[in-house]
Amino acid sequence: MELQGKTALITGGNSGIGLATARLMLAQGARVAITGRDRAKLDEAATELGGEVLALQADLNNSDDLAAIASAVGKAFGSLDIVFANAGISGPTPLGSTTYEAFRNIVDTNLTAVFFTVQSVLPLLKEGSSIVLNGSVMRELAVGGTAAYSATKAGVTGMAKVFATELAPRGIRVNTVIPGATRTPIWTRGARAGATLDATEAHLAPRIPMGRLAEADEVANAVVFLASPRASGMTAAEIVVDGGTIGAPSGGAIFRG
């Protein structure tokens, strides 16, 4: 119960890594607010997590919704100890056939919204608080057709280091978790268009040194560690949960083909 009495906001907390992190933080004693755009999925997640969770429907690209999140969390919790900026989307952006709107949608959601999410709740963060941003190994794997997604995840890493510098005087730590291929809904669009999650894993697993996709709970464990007092000396740091993907001899080619 090392998060007993702590308060946390998790964006994109209605599925995947966000939902797994919410579940673990609640088990560790925290009070948790989650956000999601889909009301039905948000309600389903809230029912699973139980009555202690604050479920907020919001579009993080909407400044009014961000203000509403900050207001609701402030009223419910008074302050925040943890922010996990997890919400993100993927999508193909091949050079030569990508529309401006498709590219911008990914950048707005995965990068711009992360900045303004943190900025909107900054007044609620106490000294000693922790911010964790969700990156991705895709920032360096050079997989064709993923320019927007890969660029945003590289940007998240750089932004986290800047946040860490800016917020160090307030005693607020900022770190990044870097997942590899993980058994979450976003990876149903991972290896091949229209693939199921099991088919995606069958395609990718032989190329991952550990021979399998990560579980969402494994990434959640890293997030909770970074948010916990055990990581009190860590800021501008990263934890990679990728089954050895980045360090594999095949390097960036691991997901090609």
From TrEMBL:
State the organism named in the record.
Scleromatobacter humisilvae
The record's section on Pfam families has: adh_short_C2
Looking at the record, the residues that make up the Ketoreductase domain are 6-184
Would the keyword Methyltransferase be found if you checked this record's keyword annotation?
Answer: no
Keywords of the record: Oxidoreductase
Write down what this protein is called.
SDR family oxidoreductase
InterPro entries, A to Z: KR_dom, NAD(P)-bd_dom_sf, Sc_DH/Rdtase_CS, SDR_fam
Q: Give a GO molecular function annotation for the protein.
A: oxidoreductase activity
Database matches in CDD domains:
SDR_c
Q: Which family does it belong to?
A: Belongs to the short-chain dehydrogenases/reductases (SDR) family.
Q: Look up keyword Plastid and say if it applies.
A: no
